[in-house]
Amino acid sequence: SLKTLAKLAIVGSVMATSFLASAEPIEIKFSHVVAENTPKGQAALKFKELVEKRLPGEYTVSVFPNSQLFGDNNELAALLLNDVQFVAPSLSKFERYTKKLQLFDLPFLFKDMDAVERFQQSEEGQKLLGSMKRKGLVGIGYLHNGMKQFSANEPLLLPKDAEGKKFRVMASDVLAAQFETLNAMAVKKPFSEVFTLLQTRAIDGQENTWSNIYSKKFYEVQSYITESNHGVLDYMVVTSDTFWKSLPADKRKVIKECMDEAIAYGNKMAADKNAEDRQAIIDSKESKVVELTPEQRQAWVDTMKPVWGKFEDQIGKEVIDAAVAANQ
Ligand code: LMR
Asked: Is 170 a pocket residue for ligand 1 (Cβ < 6 Å)?
C-alpha cells in the first residue's frame, strides 16, 4: 500500500542519513623517504593538519616518512596504482617518466635557491609540472630542500680528489655522468640504503643537502663534507591523474589549497633548516666541513660543466636557457 511505501521511504532515508553521518572519512596517504624533521617531512605534516581542519570527518591524511610505506624503488609505481595518493620524490627520480626534469640535475646550473625559485615559478618551470601528464602523473607544485654538498672519508678539495672513489647517486643518468667526469664511480641506490652503504664503506661518499646529511646521520659515518653547493635537490609533489579526477571538484579545490599552503610552509623553512643542520654538523665535530676557495670551486665547475652538453637534446636548449636566465 501507499502507507507502507511511505513508511519504507522514511526508514530508507533515516538509514541513509545515519549511514552518511557514520561514514568513515576517506584516507589520503602521503608517503616519503626522509625524516620528519626536514622541509619535506614538515610540509607533509602541515598538509595533514590543514586537510583535517578544513574537511573534518570527510578526509584524513596518513603520512608515512622514512620509506616506511614505499621507498625510492616503488613509490611512483604505487602512486599510479593508487596505493598512495601523494609522493614528493626529488626531481632526480622521474627519469622513467620524463627526461625534461633532468634539467635540475645539471651541475652548477643555479647559483642559489632564489634562482631555483625564480625558475620554478617562471612559465617554463610551471610547464614542467605537466610534463608527465601522459604517464598519469599530475605535478602539484615544487617543494624545496636545498643545494647539495659532497661528503666523503677524505677531503675533496679538487676534482682529482674524487678520482677512483665510489659515490652513491639518486637514480639519475645526469648524476651518474657528473661523477664520471670526475673519473669516479657512481652507484644508483635508494635513499634508505645510503647510511649503511657509508657505514660499511661499500661506498666512499655521496652528495646531499645539509638537512638530509644531518637527519640521516651521514655526517657520523663521513669524515669530510665539502661545501660545494654544486647542484640542487628539490622535489615535485605529485599525485595520480586517476585519484585527482576521482575527487569531487569542490573537495579537490580544498585539497589543492591545503597542498599549496603546505608547500609554501615547507619552502619557507627549507633555507633555515639547512643552515641550522649545517651548524649542528659543525658543532658535532664528527665531520669536518671543508670550504672551497674560489679557485678550487672553479676547478669543479670546469670539470663538471661538460655534462650539460650530453643532455642538452633530451632536456631541450630553451629550457636550459630559461634556467640560466633565472640566475640574473
Ligand atoms: C636522496 O635520495 O638522496 C634524496 O632524494 C632524498 C630526499 O627525498 O630528499
From this structure: yes
- Which value does ipTM take for this structure? 0.99
What is the 3-state secondary structure of the chain?
CHHHHHHHHHHHHHHHHHHHHHCCCEEEEEECCCCCCCHHHHHHHHHHHHHHHHCCCCEEEEEECCCCCCCCCCHHHHHHCCCCCEECCEHHHCCCCCCHHHHHHCCCCCCCHHHHHHHHHCHHHHHHCCCCHHHCEEEEEEEEEEECEEEECCCCCCHHHHCCCEEEECCCHHHHHHHHCCCCEEEECCHHHHHHHHHCCCCCEEEECHHHHHHCCHHHHCCEEEECCCCEEEEEEEEEHHHHHHCCHHHHHHHHHHHHHHHHHHHHHHHHHHHHHHHHHHHHCCCEEEECCHHHHHHHHHHHCCHHHHHHHHHCHHHHHHHHHCCC
pLDDT number for residue 7: 62
**pLDDT tens, 105-118?**
999 999 999 999 99
Cβ atoms of residues 72 and 190 within 8 Å? yes
pLDDT one-digit tens code per residue, 181-231: 999 999 999 999 999 999 999 999 999 999 999 999 999 999 999 999 999
Distance 298 CA to ligand 1 centre (A): 26
Sequence-distant (≥ 6) Cβ neighbours of residue 328 within 8 angstroms: none
Which of 87, 105, 145 to mutate for ligand 1's pocket (most ligand atoms within 8 Å of CB)? 145
The pLDDT score that the predictor gives to residue 6 is 61
Low-confidence ranges of the chain (pLDDT < 50): none
Indicate left, alpha or beta for 213 from its phi (over 0: left) and psi (-120 to 50: alpha). Answer: alpha
- Whether pTM > 0.80 for this model: the answer is yes
Report the C-alpha gap between 273 and 271 in whole angstroms.
5
Distance 4 CA to ligand 1 centre (A): 64
